Amino acid sequence: MSETNDPRDERDERRADEPAPDSFEALRGALAAHALDALDAEERAAVERALAADPALRDEADGFAETSALLAAAVAPVEPPPALKSRLLAQLDALPQQRPEAAATTAAPPAPPAAAAPEPEAAAPRHAREPGRAERVAQHRWFQRPGAIIAAAAASVALIAGAIIGVGWAGPNGWGAQREMAAIAEASDVQSSTHEVDGGGAVTLYWSAEQGRSGVIVEGLPDVGAESTYELWYIDDDGPQSAGTFDVQGEETWRVLDGAFAPGVEVGVTVEPAGGSPQPTSDPIVVIPT
Amino acid sequence: MADRDRALTAPESGPTAEELLTQVGRGDREAFGELYEATAARVFGLVRRLVVDPAQAEEVTQDVYLEIWQSAPRFDAARGNALAWMFTLAHRRSVDRIRASQASRDRDLRVGVRDLEVPVDTVAEAVEIRVEHERVVDALVGLSELQRECVSLAYYGGLTQSEIADRLEVPLGTVKTRLRDGMIRLRTALGVTT
């Protein structure tokens, strides 16, 4: 038995009645372990892709999540050091909150007050108003949901999906990922940004703060061969975090990024040795701010 | 949600954690302070149980509350209660910290119910916590020993299912089955409605 964490090692010890690791049943079987945070990063990402795409799985996952929260409730409370609270409160100003709806950007301005109800901004309202309908409409206009682009993205995903019949549920272009890519493209708060790459080709990033996910559609990038691969990175204040690899097959390819999308992160693409790297070993060919 | 008979119940007086978290989601700093006061000992207790090192546990707890502040607008009371949502964030961040720092290699992984001691003189809500604690311990006692061992190593020890398999020297498939069966039993015993 090798000592690596390669999921392929599981196959050696799979019982005959165990579902294949990529199957829907295997993902469903992993929901309990997911709620216990007992999956490695790759397994976790696969389950979360499936959850994003499937409400029935989400219901079961919610029940397990509530169960593991009760396990937390049994742990003895410990008072944290008193300084922690003041340190926390001092940091809130620097941290924009996510929006309950409509898109978030790094320096999201506070929701513009509705023209119909001008009211001076209180310094720190004890009970902030819920944004009214007019405000929400204004926000939607402000963020201009690009309908045509979304339709194109959804069509593009459908097109690609049609081209790879026969793949399994899991994997970067599997059914789970296809459904998730479509879900991002159809999200009510989807935004996109296309960047040309020096040397030809373009990368379009689609992101939904509401879903906490993003995906790329890549066109016209050169094939980097069997020795290398393209790798995606979420880049935040803590530096780059790998968000998966992709290879170019033909004119167009796509990938849902591993891990959670947080508004304000940048997404970078580098060329790495085959199999990908834990940290980038070369300069990015493109960096897309969100 | 009628949760009088559920384990994570709200105190009788004052705003519930759900109400506070909803206000936090609207940018209410005062509510954030109240939510922190009401929950910090429980969140810190969980983080410390996993991370062990007090300084690291404090850092992780800080990150957890900053994440609570940022993602509160997305909290959906229809999909679970506030404390459960916060515990979920706290557990995941703790586990991520353990795995990032490799601290799991030399941590004390005592397993079992005995190790879930709630001191009798804890904080004001002790009665409520003791009641929850008793229920969870009873539910854990209702598992087979092998299920309990796997669930505890995962949740209280922060191990992955592969690490559990290595540690117990059993096939990974066996660990997966025990985790799933154990969680289904717990879910039923704790009256979680799905």
From TrEMBL, chain A:
Where in or outside the cell? Cell membrane; Membrane
Write out the ranges of the annotated region (Disordered): 1-23, 98-137
GO MF term (any one): sigma factor antagonist activity
**GO BP terms:** regulation of translation
Provenance organism: Agromyces badenianii
Q: What is the lineage of its organism?
A: Bacteria, Bacillati, Actinomycetota, Actinomycetes, Micrococcales
Biased amino acid composition, Low complexity = 99-108, 116-125
Q: Which keywords does this chain's UniProt record carry?
A: Cell membrane, Membrane, Transcription, Transcription regulation, Transmembrane, Transmembrane helix
Task: Please report the name of this protein according to its UniProt entry.
Answer: Regulator of SigK
Q: Which residues form the Anti-sigma K factor RskA C-terminal domain?
A: 151-285
Q: Which domain of life is it from?
A: Bacteria
Basic and acidic residues: bias regions? 1-18, 127-137
Kindly indicate whether the keyword Amino-acid biosynthesis belongs to this entry. Answer: no
**One GO CC term on file:** plasma membrane
The answer, when asked if DNA-binding is one of the entry's keywords, is no
Per the record, membrane topology reads: Single-pass membrane protein
Regions crossing the membrane? 148-171
Query: Where is it mostly found?
Result: membrane
